[in-house]
Design goal:
The protein is of the alpha+beta class. It contains 9 helices and 4 strands, in the order αβαβαββαααααα. A 4-stranded mixed β-sheet has the order 2-1-3-4, covered by helices on one side.
C-alpha cells in the first residue's frame, strides 16, 4: 500500500491540466486538486467573454462548458466524473472516505449535479432559462426548491461537521461552491444556522483558500 508521500511523488509525474472559469463550478475541481496536493496547470476559460465557445476550446471540450480536466492526455468533463477520476488516480488522498462505497458516491454526486446544481443556475441566472416575462417566476420557484434542500442540509449538519460526518470529502467542496454561488447572488443563509457555520468553516481550509486565491489570478 502506498503512503500519501509516495502518492504525491507519483503525482509529480502526472500531466494534469484544468480548464476553469472564475466563479464557475470548476472551483470544485480546483479545491479537490488543492486538497490532494496534485500539481496542475490551470487554464482559464472566461465564460463572460465567450471563450468557452471559441474553436480552440471546443476542440478540447465540444460541450463548450467548464470544467474540463486533461489527465495524462485524456479529457474528462462533468464534475462528478472528474472527482471520481481524481479519487481513482490518487485514492491515498481520500477525496471520499473509505467507508463510503462507490454506489453512495455516485448517488450523492448525482444528487448535487442533477438535483441541486440546475436550481443554482435557475436562481442565479434565470435569464438563461426563460424569457423576460418569466425570469422572476423561474427564480422564485428555484428559491422555494432550494429552501427545502437547505433545510435538509442544515438538519444533516446539526450533529456533524461535514457531509460524511467527521470526514471532509469532495462533496463538501461541491457544497461550498453551491453555497458560495447562491449567496453571491443574494440567497440568504440567516435561517440556516448550521449551513452558515459550515460555510464559514470551509473558508478556513487550506485547499479552499488556495483554490480561491488561484481562481482570481489570470492564467494563460
Amino acid at each position: 500500500m502506498h503512503t500519501v508521500t509516495e502518492a504525491l511523488t507519483e503525482a509529480l509525474t502526472e500531466s494534469v491540466t484544468l480548464y476553469a472559469s472564475p466563479g464557475a463550478c470548476s472551483l470544485v475541481t480546483m479545491i479537490a486538486l488543492e486538497h490532494a496536493r496534485v500539481p496542475y496547470t490551470l487554464r482559464n476559460v472566461i465564460l463572460a467573454k465567450g471563450e468557452h465557445k471559441r474553436p480552440e476550446y471546443l476542440a478540447i471540450n465540444p460541450k463548450g462548458k467548464v470544467p474540463a480536466l486533461n489527465l495524462n492526455g485524456r479529457v474528462i468533463t462533468e464534475t462528478p466524473a472528474i472527482l471520481i477520476a481524481l479519487n481513482s488516480a490518487w485514492p491515498q488522498v481520500r477525496l471520499f472516505p473509505e467507508s463510503v462505497d462507490s454506489i453512495q458516491r455516485f448517488s450523492d454526486l448525482s444528487y448535487l449535479a442533477s438535483g441541486v446544481h440546475p436550481l443554482v443556475t435557475r436562481y442565479c441566472r434565470p435569464d438563461l432559462i426563460a424569457g423576460d416575462a418569466l425570469v422572476t417566476e423561474v427564480k422564485e420557484r428555484a428559491e422555494t426548491a432550494l429552501a427545502g434542500i437547505f433545510s435538509q442540509l442544515d438538519a444533516t449538519l446539526t450533529h456533524q461537521p461535514y457531509w460524511y460526518g467527521d470526514s471532509w470529502s469532495a462533496m463538501d467542496a461541491y457544497w461550498f461552491w453551491v453555497i458560495r454561488r447562491l449567496t453571491g447572488a443574494g440567497f440568504a443563509l440567516n435561517t440556516y444556522q448550521h449551513v452558515t457555520m459550515y460555510f464559514e468553516h470551509m473558508h478556513t481550509l487550506d485547499a479552499v483558500e488556495l483554490a480561491l486565491k488561484h481562481s482570481t489570478v489570470r492564467h494563460p
